[in-house]
Amino acid sequence: MGYGSRIDVLCSLLTKAKVFADVGCDHGYCSEYMLENGLCERAILSDISAGSLDKAKRLLSGYIASGRAEAVLGDGFFGVPESVDEVLIAGMGGSEIVGILSDETFGFLPRTFVFQPMHDAEKLRRYLVSAGACLERDFTFRCGRKFYDVIRGRRLREGEPPQSYTDSEYEFGRENLFKRPKDFLERTEKQLKNVERYLSEERLQDGSRRALEARLRRLKGVLNDEID
């Protein structure tokens, strides 16, 4: 695709949609991918930053002129109709994404979605399942030295039973625990080493030490495939 590995991974998870919305679009590369590959009839690009939105508007000026793309300056789902077929939100914190979805004025659970939280992925997973979402993909991937979580899912169909997640699946991601991808294990090993380094500090308070020791056992359980 040529955008860079993080954007490439996100684009690979997007599906065909009549109307696609890229919330927090930044440069607009994912909307360009959808439009150029005939995966959507129309794209909505939104961002709270005028500077970021201007970059997307320049990139997609031809599509905007033809009416196939619309640029919206605003926060969250402002200007994004609930009827949209697919939503991408990437590069925000999980808590921030939950805030967008649960906003009393503009919030909603999209029909299909790809979310890439920078942190607080567990909080996002818990909200999505409780709100009636089916999480179809949920895994960790690496881009350079950084690790990212990405979640693809959809709204539950009428009569479809809700998903049942364990605390471990909420914390680490179901796909990570069942398929144990290389990037997830590498990130877990890195986290384990960081905890071991913190535990080597002599001035730790007892409460902090106990919490770190519990975290250490948890991470070792993941690496040894001994976690429920």
What is the N-to-C succession of helices and strands? HEHEHHEEHEHEEHHHH
Average pLDDT score: 95
General form:
elongated
Number of strands: 7
Please report the distance between the alpha carbons of the first and last residues. 38 Å
Number of helices: 10
- In the sheet with the most strands, the strands line up as 3-2-1-4-5-7-6
Structure classification? alpha/beta
Polypeptide structure, described:
It is a single chain. This protein is of the alpha/beta class and 228 residues long. The protein contains ten helices and seven strands. Strands 3-2-1-4-5-7-6 form a seven-stranded mixed beta sheet, sandwiched between helices. A hairpin with a 2-residue loop joins strand 6 (133-143) and strand 7 (146-155). Helix 5 (94-102) runs parallel beside helix 6 and helix 9 packs antiparallel against helix 10. The two termini are 38 Å apart. The model has no long low-confidence stretch (mean pLDDT 95).
Quick recap:
This protein is of the alpha/beta class. Helix content is 44%, strand content 24%. A seven-stranded mixed sheet has the order 3-2-1-4-5-7-6, with helices on both faces.
Note the topology.
Blueprint: H1 5-13, E1 17-23, H2 29-36, E2 40-47, H3 50-59, H4 61-66, E3 69-73, E4 86-92, H5 94-102, E5 112-117, H6 121-130, E6 133-143, E7 146-155, H7 167-172, H8 174-179, H9 182-199, H10 206-223
Parallel strand pairs: 1-2, 1-4, 2-3, 4-5
Antiparallel strand pairs: 5-7, 6-7
Helix pairs in contact: 5-6, 9-10
